[in-house]
Design a protein that fits this description.
alpha+beta
């Protein structure tokens, strides 16, 4: 035994192994353990930092949203109060008489009483030409130029509203209410009352006393009032309006901002709310420092645990290695065994490895066969549905085109000759009239014939008869045109078309089904030409509208059957077509299966289950999408999204003649 062991050790010492294999086993265990532990620790700390930061920022954003709502409500309330005060003053009889007599003393007494009672900063009365009659201002507004001409002009036009009046050269504004002064249904002047928007008033709107929020009022994009020192400059413009809160930097400090339009107070009035992020950033810094301390503590703990684990795992493996080296020298031991051991652990490892290898081979084979079967079945269903629908639509298109061609020529012949027939008839009737004038005393046979054929009624009804025939031929021409537009067999290439024409052609073809029992409501938007395969798109409209009509007509208990078709532009390169009915709706369990081949909710023999499946494929090939919205008892709605211009010219045609 000793000779064998020494021989093995001598052979091993003569082989030069790479540096990695000379590293102790304990390091091979502890280094990956530490790497994984440190990586997970870093990932957790990074996730906590990001999650905490997002939570804090979301809290600030929610607070800014609430603050903006509260500020808008406060300004609306104040503006309503000012309008009522202005209206109250404008309806005082003494004020009306004072303006008519131009008695400024009485006016000043009245407006002084109102200013004191309501604690107003501005009360101004003007005559019918807009010239000031009397005015009282707060001390801080004396000698300040108020830009209030727009408010005065609005009041003289009979409006009772509110608005913001800016102060020239100052980042302050007045919230004013104005009302006209009427006498004998005639406007003889106007009243303007206002409150100065001060920093103290803006501070009172704050709902969070822990963080200071700032406010700014913009008129037509220009700053007119604010308690935010960093933006008091008149050159500061209102940021681009956002539907939600946004983060901005002002003088290297971050703020969460919300801009809200106040349409009820004047035109182009916006309120901006700014909340500083300094407190949030300080909290994030404190958390980051504590998490860094936690990280280093975790690294130390992972190192200790790794050392203990490496010792526990490494010792049995080292013992096993010694045993393997000893057994390797025996002739009966095979080196191909991954763990050359004769004990239960070695046998279990060998059996387990063999089992795993067999399971993996079988699983790989089964998955490959299952994938091939699923792909074959899918291809077979698609090919079958496409072949059936293609043959159906090809035959239908050929039949429509043939009927349209055969009907068109005789109809055109009849339509073209009706005008001549009408002219000839009028000429003959005129000739008969001349005969009656020249020979008023007709013979008895002629008189009997006139009475028999009712010449007077025939003269009146013949032109109506020809007009009705003309209307009938025009109707036939429209039907022929719709058949040609629907089939469009001569348009195999994708081209820009008016999809409204396709919808109208489809409705005309389905007219016999829906004209008496269903009301069609068309709400067409102004759409550009859409690049598509017209005949395929008409097929989609035909399938969806026909299904809606069948759903309405299959239930005799429904009243006021309606199909609404709405078109509009959605986005830069997309149009939307919505087709909805007011029927019983679609079962929720059936909605997810509507576009599956051969699935149908109609009775046996009434549907093939291919219409919506082919429609889905046509829309998908047009790089669009189709959605279904339905609730039981509320009807169903199909929404089709189509690109205005196709992104590629390679869209495959599903139905070829």
């Amino acid at each position: 035994m000793k000779n064998i062991r020494s021989a093995i050790e001598g052979d091993n010492s003569s082989i030069k192994s790479p540096p990695y294999f000379r590293v102790p086993l304990s390091l091979k265990i502890i280094v990956p353990f530490l790497s994984v532990s440190v990586t997970l620790l870093l990932l957790v700390i990074h996730t906590v930092k990001i999650g905490f930061a997002n939570t804090l920022e979301k809290g600030v954003r929610d607070q800014v949203e609430n603050q903006a709502f509260l500020a808008v409500r406060d300004f609306k309330s104040r503006s309503t109060q000012l309008i009522m005060q202005a209206k109250l003053l404008s309806e005082e009889a003494e004020l009306i008489r004072a303006i008519e007599k131009k008695n400024t003393d009485i006016l000043r007494q009245d407006i002084l009483s109102l200013k004191t009672t309501f604690k107003l900063d501005l009360v101004k009365v003007v005559d019918g030409r807009g010239e000031m009659v009397a005015e009282l201002r707060e001390d801080s507004l004396i000698d300040k130029k108020l830009i209030n001409s727009a408010a005065i002009n609005s009041a003289l036009k009979g409006l009772e509203k509110s608005n913001f009046v800016s102060i020239d050269g100052k980042a302050q504004a007045l919230l004013v209410g104005f009302a006209p002064i009427r006498s004998k249904n005639r406007i003889i002047g106007a009243v303007l009352v206002g409150d100065l928007v001060t920093d103290e008033q803006l501070h009172k709107i704050n709902i969070d006393t822990k963080s200071k929020n700032y406010f700014a009022i913009f008129k037509s994009g220009e700053l007119i009032a604010t308690d935010f020192p960093q933006i008091r400059s008149k050159s500061w413009k209102k940021p681009t309006p956002q539907t939600s809160t946004t983060k901005i930097d002002i003088e290297r400090l971050s703020y969460i901002m919300k801009t809200v339009e106040i349409s009820e107070i004047g035109d182009s009035i916006a309120l901006g709310v700014f909340s500083p992020m300094a407190t949030v950033q300080q909290t994030q810094l404190t958390l980051s420092q504590r998490l860094d301390s936690f990280f280093w503590a975790g690294v130390i703990l992972a190192t200790i645990v790794g050392a203990v684990v490496s010792r526990i795992i490494g010792k049995p493996i080292l013992d096993l290695t010694q045993n393997v080296n000893w057994m390797a020298s025996n002739e009966y031991f095979s080196g191909r065994v991954p763990i050359p051991s004769s004990d239960e652990v070695g046998q279990l490892a060998e059996a387990f490895n063999c089992m795993i290898e067999q399971v993996e081979n079988r699983d790989r084979t089964l998955n490959l066969q299952l994938h091939q079967l699923q792909q074959t079945l899918h291809d077979l269903k698609n090919a079958q549905s496409q072949l059936i629908q293609a043959e159906k639509m090809s035959s239908l298109g050929l039949m429509m085109a043939g009927i349209a061609h055969e009907i068109n020529n005789p109809v055109n012949f009849i339509y073209g000759n009706l005008s001549h027939a009408n002219q000839y008839t009028q000429d003959l009737l005129r000739l008969v009239g001349l005969y009656q004038q020249e020979f008023p005393n007709a013979s008895a046979p002629i008189q009997d014939c006139i009475e028999e054929i009712e010449l007077e009624f025939l003269s009146e009804d013949l032109s109506k008869l020809l007009s009705s025939m003309k209307m009938g031929t025009e109707r036939i021409q429209q039907i022929v045109l719709s058949l040609r537009n629907f089939s469009r067999l001569d348009e195999a290439e994708m081209k820009p078309v008016d999809i409204h024409e396709g919808i109208d052609s489809t409705l005309l073809i389905l007219n016999s089904k829906i004209k008496t029992a269903i009301k069609v409501i068309k709400k067409y938007g102004k759409l550009p030409l859409v690049e598509c395969y017209p005949s395929q798109l008409n097929q989609v409209f035909m399938n969806i509208i026909a299904n809606a009509a069948d759903a309405l007509l299959s239930n005799p208990n429904l009243r006021n059957n309606e199909i609404e078709i709405l078109t509009e532009i959605a986005g830069v390169n997309q149009v939307v077509v919505k087709i909805r009915d007011n029927g019983n709706g679609i079962d929720p369990d059936a909605i997810n299966k509507l576009f599956d081949p051969f699935f149908t909710t109609k009775p046996v023999g009434k549907g093939t289950g291919l219409g919506l499946s082919i429609s889905y494929q046509i829309i998908e090939k047009h790089q669009g999408k189709i959605e279904v919205n339905s609730e039981i008892g509320q009807g169903a709605e199909f929404v089709i999204y189509l690109p205005i211009k196709a992104r590629t010219k390679e869209a495959a045609c599903l139905c070829q003649s």
